[in-house]
Amino acid sequence: MKKQLLSATICLLSTFPVLAGGFQVNLQGQKQTGMGHTGTGLMLDNSCILFNPGAVSFLDSLRGLSFGTSLIFPRTTFLEPYPGTYTANIEKHVSTPITLYAAFKVGKSDKLTAGIGIYNPFGSRLQWADDWKGQFLIREIDLKTFFIQPTISYKVSEKLGIGIGFVYGTGNFSLRKGIPVQDSLGNYGEGELKGKANGFGFNAGIYFKASEKLSIGVDYRSQVNVKVKEGTAAFEVPNGLANYFPETTFSTQLRLPQVATLGLGYVLNTKIKLALDVNFIGWQSYDSLIIDFAQNTDKLADIHSARMYKNSFIFRVGGQYQVNNKWTVRLGSYYDMTPTPDGYFTPETPDVNKIGITSGATMKVTKKLNLDLSLVFIEGMKRTNSSIETGFGGTYKSRALAPGFSLEYRF
């Protein structure tokens, strides 16, 4: 019994950091999203505060403000290993990451531009039925993060721009999962974690106009060390075990990965623009999870659990076509490689290789106001795998649909 309870507790406490891999959000600009979420080498609007701070100084407008959101409709299905026929689906829900960008020229020259970006690079919600077969691994998780990035960009010449932004990351999370002990009525126990976290990093970029048609961008977003100092852990277990699972606090640290991007932009003619981005995501920094409880018992010990994430790439391509003075349309696609290795696959983050198909449009409402629209369809590759630590495994199939919009106003 002691070993079983400790194993359940380890599973309970290992979920939060895993969210960073399986719940990375790539919806940080509606124009860019419509083009496969490209934008490091092709300056489109003030969303380049995130995509490439070096391009901010090349913005046409002296001042600009944009706000946008996307609606993510995820679907994931679990099938137990053969010869079993049991299936389960996550509960239907909608996640709503937002973006807010503002930029303005500093001084009388057009060389220095300042800006700020607020966006959600990680965050989502996932809920399985309380009585599903994996309830001792996960019932429900909810993660919300906000990155705030003040930025400075300098136009070195008519061909070269450099920029850097300071990143402050903050967020909160909650997690529920079952514990395999029953009360007199047959109800299983439950554990719940809640916490707030924050950390710091930076985003630096270089934008180079090699010719009138070709532009090249390099962007580097640093690793962000997110720390939880006083998270709370609460347990509902039979009275006879309550002393072994006291309400307590815990601390932990998560290293959100560095992201390096090389982007190319090409202006084919006055109507057509093309873009190619390659993202390198340094997930190897997430090799283990360490939980330090303020109060330990015989069945509630500090945790050291291997995660062994691997570095991954995302390959993106997109293009836009200006139909007329009022409408511009976009198409794109990308291939997203999972960082989760075999043997470390869990229902908290049923992460797989994914293909994304994107589309979008901009309507020029007035001379100063634009409405941007995007639509993303994500198809996850079917994957059969299990966890070395828990032994739980099966086949997972995921997909998602994400429509989005933003309003851009140029002063």
Task: Throw out a few tags for this protein.
411 residues; mainly beta; Porin; 14-stranded antiparallel beta barrel; disordered N terminus
Share of helix, binned = under 10%
Could you say how many structural domains there are in total?
1
Which radius of gyration do the C-alpha atoms yield? 23 Å
User: What would CATH call the homologous superfamily?
Assistant: Outer membrane protein transport protein (OMPP1/FadL/TodX)
Total beta strands: 22
Shape: elongated
Q: Label the CATH architecture.
A: Beta Barrel
List the helices and strands and how they pair.
Layout (H helix, E strand, L loop, with lengths): L1 H12 L1 H8 L7 H5 L13 H4 L11 E8 L2 E7 L7 E3 L8 E8 L6 E8 L3 E5 L12 E16 L4 E23 L5 E22 L4 E8 L2 E13 L11 E9 L2 E9 L4 E10 L6 E6 L9 E4 L5 E11 L4 E10 L17 E11 L4 E12 L2 E4 L6 E18 L1
Antiparallel strand pairs: 1-4, 1-22, 2-3, 2-22, 4-5, 5-7, 6-7, 7-8, 8-9, 9-10, 9-11, 10-13, 11-12, 12-15, 13-14, 14-17, 15-16, 17-18, 18-19, 19-20, 20-22, 21-22
Give a short summary of the structure.
This protein has helices at 2-13, 15-22, 30-34, 48-51; strands at residues 63-70, 73-79, 87-89, 98-105, 112-119, 123-127, 140-155, 160-182, 188-209, 214-221, 224-236, 248-256, 259-267, 272-281, 288-293, 303-306, 312-322, 327-336, 354-364, 369-380, 383-386, 393-410. The chain has a single domain, classed as Porin.
Structural features, described:
The chain is mainly beta and 411 residues long. It has one domain: Outer membrane protein transport protein (OMPP1/FadL/TodX) (Porin). The protein is 7% helix and 55% strand. The chain contains 4 helices and 22 strands. The protein has helices at residues 2-13, 15-22, 30-34, 48-51, and strands at 63-70, 73-79, 87-89, 98-105, 112-119, 123-127, 140-155, 160-182, 188-209, 214-221, 224-236, 248-256, 259-267, 272-281, 288-293, 303-306, 312-322, 327-336, 354-364, 369-380, 383-386, 393-410. A 14-stranded antiparallel β-barrel has the order 1-4-5-7-8-9-10-13-14-17-18-19-20-22. A hairpin with a 4-residue loop joins strand 13 (259-267) and strand 14. The longest helix is centred in the first third of the chain and has 12 residues, at 2-13. The chain is elongated, with a radius of gyration of 23 Å. 46% of the residues are buried.
